[in-house]
Amino acid sequence: MEEILELKELLLKGDIKGSLTLVDELEEMGRKDIINNIRSYAVILLLHLIKQQAENRTTRSWDVSIRNSVLEIQDLNERPKSKGVYLNSEELRGILEKAYPQAVNKASLEVEEGRYDSRELEQKVNRVKILNQAMNLINADD
């Protein structure tokens, strides 16, 4: 919260330019935090989609985790005041693509009780199909 105190000082001094620069920095920090949270939920979402595809089955637990991750991503991405979003579809796709390797690594420990290392698992599943499925779930109006 040092930034808030610094902003207060700048405003009291009448330094509008410095204040606006700091506001931009604060906005960017908030955006990065939202993106990091979305990425964390994207890893969970992709992990379970990978497991479903690799094992050609699903469980109630995986289904619930997928739904919860989608809901969290949708909620985090929503801008409450402007009714817009923080990340458009292209940016969301980029986040999913960045999260995918981590999801594969985690899934490699769980699919068929850790039978595959991450490289083997990656060859066993269809990356594009999983990413498309994730995007479709996120973009669906529930």
Automatic annotation (TrEMBL):
Matches recorded under Gene3D superfamilies: Uncharcterised protein PF01724
InterPro entries: DUF29 (IPR002636)
Domain of life: Bacteria
Pfam families: DUF29 (PF01724)
Protein's name according to its UniProt entry: DUF29 family protein
Provenance organism: Lyngbya aestuarii BL J
